[in-house]
Structures are given as C-alpha cells and as structure tokens.
Specification:
single chain; mainly beta; Gamma-B Crystallin, domain 1; four-stranded antiparallel beta sheet; 8 strands; 36% strand
Length: 105
C-alpha cells in the first residue's frame, strides 16, 4: 500500500531539470538495481541521478552500488538535493530504498 507523499522524484540532470529525463518512484519499495525501474520507458537509471526531491512522507537511502552496498546517504521527508555531487554521489547511485518511516538499522 502506498502512503500519500511516500515518493521520490529523481532527475538525470542537476537542479531538478524537467526538460531532461526524470521519474517519480512510489514507496515503500526496494530497488536493488536501477536498470529496470517502473515507468522508466527502458531508461537505465544506474549512475544517472543528478538531483532528487523527497516526498513529505518518505525516507530514502541511496547506495553507490547494486544490492544496497557501498557508500550510502539517507534523506528524510521534504529534503531536496539539486546537486547530488555535493554529497559525493552525483551520477554514482545504483540502488535505493524508499521507506514510509525512519529506517532502523
């Protein structure tokens, strides 16, 4: 079941550029690979996320490697990053998890 606001909006370019490829992903959901995302129309999103908007009821964990491995960053509700390279992950994300509550590790 999807909770209103439990979603992320990913962009292939910096600064939330909607003239280039972009995609909304609903959660909660786990994506061990970004090669075949729902509604991506065949686009491989691996290593191609440059900016992200996080919904009002979402927590997202972004990983630099497939299968939730490698360096990661967690973003909470309403967090928007226009430049992923600021956190060292621009064009360097290969998996992600969208949570509907703060993750417990």
């Amino acid at each position: 079941m999807y909770l209103d606001g439990c979603r992320i909006h990913i962009y292939a370019e910096n600064d939330f550029d909607k003239t280039k490829p972009h995609l909304i992903l609903d959660g909660p959901e786990e994506y061990p690979s970004l090669k075949r995302l729902p509604d991506a129309r065949g686009k491989d999103w691996s290593n191609d996320i440059d900016s992200i908007e996080v919904g009002s009821n979402a927590w997202v964990v972004l990983f630099e490697d497939k299968n939730f491995r490698g360096k990661y960053i967690m973003l909470g509700p309403g967090k928007n990053l226009p430049y992923m390279n600021v956190v060292g992950l621009g064009d360097n994300i290969e998996s992600l998890i969208i949570h509907d509550r703060p993750p417990v590790w």
